[in-house]
Design a protein that fits this description.
There is one protein chain. By secondary structure, the protein is of the alpha+beta class. Among the domains are: 123 residues, no CATH class; 66 residues, ATPase, nucleotide binding domain (Nucleotidyltransferase, domain 5, 2-Layer Sandwich). The protein has 12 helices and 21 strands. A 5-stranded mixed beta sheet has the order 3-2-1-6-11, with helices on both faces. Strands 9-8-10-7-19 form a 5-stranded antiparallel beta sheet. The chain has a 5-stranded mixed beta sheet with strand order 14-13-12-17-18, with helices on both faces. The longest helix has 25 residues. Belongs to the FtsA/MreB family. One of its GO terms (biological process) is FtsZ-dependent cytokinesis. It holds the Pfam family SHS2_FTSA. Cell division protein that is involved in the assembly of the Z ring. May serve as a membrane anchor for the Z ring.
Length: 452
């Protein structure tokens, strides 16, 4: 359970695959190698061709190996929040040791108890996070090991995802000749990197703007509470430029990176650049402002959809505001545009490591930091996902609200247990007139109806 040494983070994105090697020395994380390769075999953040994805992963890993001068065998992989469901879980066991002192085995057994439930055949457990342990009725315990008790309970958060997405990710990584040390849900990892302690505690929204999709995640009380995935990203912006300017996808991507602005008001209508137009022998001159108008139109659409779903749960009333990350977040002026649409404070997170000062590296860095920060008891709980721990258990599950990415509709899951099942019905937040409701009332409504 030693959280020290070499960490390798893998970000399998729609447009690029990134590998970051970091060494932890005396609590300090130092990046020693980076690999980046153009993605192949992916669509909207999901692997659709295992062989092509495996080849791209191999190439990115080789680059990182050369720079870090090490051989990479194990990686920590981030997975997208597509169709992720968040559920509450609870397990209870009798302490096995005659002395009644709780040990590692008891923690693993109670974790296994919390995982015993009926899942649809198309779903698989992605992650389990312990929220608290209860020893003989005494709650709020973070690490029960060494304590004396007769009954041990664990209350946690369970994340499940589509079996196809998880299987394809595992298969591609294994075909690349690598072992998976841990699979981590991207929004969970990003929260540990892009948010400070206060933002994670009081609540913030992370908007991860990738090439194939845009993910909004609500973090509150250091927990992932809600996700929404819009199947539009940087590739859609590139396609818009290609169609409107009648140029190739390659040229459109270059124009977006070299001359693109997210906010047309910040672009110049006097500065022009040449564009190679299909069917014309000579380039056409286009102004920065005209290009920015094309980009802004698509971003307006993406942000409007996200705002609509976040408004339903009053997430934009959280004091932490919105933090933008992902490759698209590098566009100049995007913070101002997002602030105008969301109506709250917005900032863009950029890593401060030398050579990685671009938001597209955030996820690969985040999975490393997240894994390195896990406590021993959290690692014990996670080990039950692949272990063979058995226990006699009593279970209790309740539902949690999430969103189905394809439609953005809220969905509830009602897990089944072998003994008892508890069903909780969530009330929809009451709509308030923003001119009449105070900030306190909006926060109170949000907490009461969403985080209870």
């Amino acid at each position: 359970m030693d959280n020290s040494g070499i960490y390798v983070g893998l970000d399998i994105g729609t447009t690029s695959i990134k590998v970051i090697v970091a060494e932890r020395v005396k609590g300090q994380m130092n990046v020693i190698g980076v690999g980046s390769e153009r993605s192949n075999g992916l669509s909207r953040g999901v692997i659709v061709d295992i062989d092509k994805a495996a080849s791209a992963i191999q190439s990115a890993v080789r680059q990182a190996e050369e720079k870090a001068s090490i051989e990479i065998k194990k990686i920590i992989a981030g997975v997208p929040a597509n169709l992720v469901k968040i559920e509450r879980c609870r397990g209870m066991i009798a302490v096995a040791d005659e002395s009644k002192e709780i040990n590692n085995e008891d923690v693993q057994n109670v974790s296994a108890a919390a995982l015993v439930q009926s899942l649809p055949p198309e779903r698989e457990v992605l992650d389990v996070i312990p929220d608290e342990f209860v020893v003989d009725g005494f709650d709020g315990i973070k690490d029960p090991r060494g304590m004396v008790g007769v009954r041990l309970e664990m209350h946690g958060t369970l994340f499940t995802g589509p079996k196809t997405i998880i299987h394809n990710t595992r298969k591609a990584i294994e075909k690349a000749g690598l072992q998976i040390e841990q699979i981590i849900i991207a929004p969970l990892a990003l929260s540990s990197l892009v948010l400070n302690d206060g933002e994670q505690d009081f609540g913030s929204v992370i908007v991860d703007m990738g090439g194939g999709q845009t993910t909004a995640a609500v973090i509150h009380d250091h927990q992932l509470k809600y996700t929404y995935v819009d199947q539009e990203g940087g590739q859609y912006i590139t396609k818009d430029i290609s169609v409107v300017l009648n140029t190739s996808i390659e040229n459109a991507e270059k124009l977006k990176r070299d001359y693109g602005y997210a906010d047309a008001q910040q672009a110049s209508d006097e500065d022009e650049f040449p564009v190679e137009v299909v069917g014309q022998s000579t380039p056409t001159q286009i102004s920065e402002q005209y290009l920015a108008e094309i980009i802004e139109a698509r971003l307006d659409q993406i942000f409007d959809k996200i705002k609509q779903h976040l408004d339903e749960i009053h997430a934009l009333d959280l004091p932490g505001g919105v933090v933008l990350t992902g490759g698209v977040a590098a566009l100049p002026g995007i913070t101002d545009l997002a602030s105008q649409i969301f109506g709250t404070n917005v900032r863009t997170f950029i890593p401060n490591q030398m050579g990685l000062r671009h938001p597209s590296f955030d996820e690969a860095l985040a999975v490393i930091k997240y894994q390195a920060a896990l406590s021993e008891v959290a690692l014990l709980v996670k080990s039950t996902l692949t272990g063979d721990t058995r226990a006699s258990v009593a279970l209790d599950f309740s539902t949690t609200t999430t969103a189905t990415p394809a439609t953005g509709q809220q969905a509830t899951t009602q897990p089944q247990a072998t003994t008892t099942t508890q069903k909780t019905t969530k009330k929809q937040p009451a709509k308030q007139d923003p001119d009449q409701a105070s900030g306190f009332d909006r926060f109170k409504s949000f907490f009461n109806h969403f985080f209870d």
